[in-house]
């Protein structure tokens, strides 16, 4: 079996950075046809197409994304060799994780925590909307996304949804605001409340609950970012509809207190992956751990 030609790999890496064959050829001062030959030889050697053309741009296939990850690791190892006497860092494998912008930061930290002390792993954590994250997952820009909203699944979008944890949702507020009252109905009659944005699972459950209780609470704010909700509630002027995990530290130090859990409302934490021929094995390890230990400690 022929050895891998690393010159071919370097040319592939350069094209992957630019996403355009002619631009890379000009930058490297080689002809476009010669560059195409180098890429084709690498594809023949690996047995997989590495790019697909969409209009004038080149996009990585799944095999191309895997090859790019390995190419970056290989070249980083070369840099490490050159910089050993300067004690430069070691090459690391990338794990790309997307998280819904509104998702509990404590939950996100709990998910990635096993990787933070590993010197062989580089964690890339990005936040965004559900649509942005799912698009990045489909284009192989992310390995997994963390969300509380299950995506629609059909034959064209083969998402795999892993249910990691389900946390109760409570009314939370400053001690001076709650006083001795803990009953949900009494608190909602007398205090303004900060709510998740309309359309979220928690908001749908809350709206149904107050309808059953025949209540019309005063809404102080509607917020689509859980970290911002936490900050507003800490100011002490309104209650918050939050899973306790999102304010774990504040509950522990007494800055906030938890009233009764809101009946029938829970936040479900999900990891979403997509069917891939070459899945990232580290993601599988993270999901397996999360399902064994569903963040009760978080």
Helices and strands, with pairings:
Elements: H1 6-18, H2 21-28, H3 32-46, E1 51-54, E2 57-60, H4 62-82, E3 93-100, H5 105-116, E4 121-128, H6 130-138, E5 144-147, E6 159-173, H7 175-178, H8 184-190, E7 193-196, H9 201-212, E8 219-223, H10 226-234, E9 239-242, H11 248-253, E10 257-274, H12 281-292
Parallel strand pairs: 3-4, 3-5, 7-8, 7-9
Antiparallel strand pairs: 1-2, 5-10, 6-9, 6-10
Mean pLDDT: 85
**What best-fitting shape do the alpha-carbon axes yield?**
elongated
Report the portion of residues in β strands.
15-25%
How many structural domains in the coordinates?
3
Report on the biggest sheet. 8 strands, mixed
How do the SSEs run, as a string of H and E?
A: HHHEEHEHEHEEHHEHEHEHEH
How far apart are the first and last residues' alpha carbons, in Å? Answer: 50 Å
Number of helical segments with 4 or more residues: 12
For this structure, the CATH topology of the largest domain is D-Maltodextrin-Binding Protein, domain 2
Helix share bin: 40-55%
Parts with pLDDT < 50 across at least 5 consecutive residues: none
CATH architecture of the largest domain: 3-Layer(aba) Sandwich
Please give the CATH class of the largest domain. Answer: Alpha Beta
DSSP strand tally = 10
Enumerate the strands of the largest sheet in spatial order, edge to edge or round the barrel.
4-3-5-10-6-9-7-8
- Using the CA coordinates, give the radius of gyration: 24 Å
CATH superfamily of the largest domain: Periplasmic binding protein-like II
What class do helices, strands and sheet pairing give?
alpha/beta
Protein name: LysR family transcriptional regulator
GO molecular function, one term: DNA-binding transcription factor activity
Keywords: DNA-binding, Transcription, Transcription regulation
Family: Belongs to the LysR transcriptional regulatory family.
